[in-house]
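Please, structure for the following, as tokens.
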Amino acid sequence: MPGFEIDIFVESPLPFDDLYRRASRAQIGSTDVPIAAIDDLIAMKRSTGRPRDVEDIDVLLRLKEKNERN
């Protein structure tokens, strides 16, 4: 599998139980992996204020809009 980056939070930016409930699931190998909902990803990235996250928010909003049209 090619390399990829993940963000790890020391402190949850949103209530974990809510994030977990709204997450979708993906099977990676034999592991069921929760994937944060797009609105939660946007909220988490807004809470950091990092330049890279600001760029990601723009991409996520466009993706969300595209998905809502389909």
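Residues 37-70 form one domain. Strands lie at 24-28, 31-35.
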